[in-house]
Amino acid sequence: xxxxxxxxxxxxxxxxxxxxxxxxxxxxxxxxxxxxxxxxxxxxxxxxxxxxxxxxxxxxxxxxxxxxxxxxxxxxxxxxxxxxxxxxxxxxxxxxxxxxxxxxxxxxxxxxxxxxxxxxxxxxxxxxxxxxxxxxxxxxxxxxxxxxxxxxxxxxxxxxxxxxxxxxxxxxxxxxxxxxxxxxxxxxxxxxxxxxxxxxxxxxxxxxxxxxxxxxxxxxxxxxxx
Length: 226
Fold this sequence. Notes:
Blueprint: E1 6-10, H1 14-26, E2 30-34, H2 40-47, E3 51-55, H3 63-71, E4 78-82, H4 87-95, E5 100-103, H5 108-127, E6 130-133, E7 136-139, E8 144-147, E9 150-151, H6 156-167, E10 173-174, H7 175-182, H8 191-209, E11 215-218, E12 222-225
Parallel strand pairs: 1-2, 1-3, 3-4, 4-5
Antiparallel strand pairs: 6-7, 7-8, 8-9, 10-12, 11-12
């Protein structure tokens, strides 16, 4: 019997998979390797891994399809791993619910560090899964948000944005602070991208409760939750 976290590695290149296994085991993680996309979803349902390292280009189902299937029933942390660095792939992967994104070639030590960080964040979430503010209930464990008891249909980026603002009502968050939270892969995006996400979030709030005054713009600085 072991209490060590289980890392599922979904990777079709044996050398990369074995390298990741070696480094993760040295860091006291349990590992399991699957070389193709088919069957990943069912394996996860039966074995409940603590985190998934998911390659984008796979035989059978590709990584994006696997990610979409997993997110239909699970909030297991997912790090997408790929040799494709197209911005569309990055965005699509994260919008489907991936928690982090790393490109080949990579340092195995960096992957281990990312795994540790995501697992630590997941443990903190389990300790205090729900927070509430002005009729907003954020449940990180279930990846759900409600406003005045009505469910908000949010993308992962919008969810992280609302969760951060709701964590400290009245505090003004700069665009840089928001970007660091909602883009977990550390990529650089423009202020307009953050503004666009805020606009979409406001629209969904208005569509749900008929008001969009919950999130206030602070000129030249950022946003806060009233």
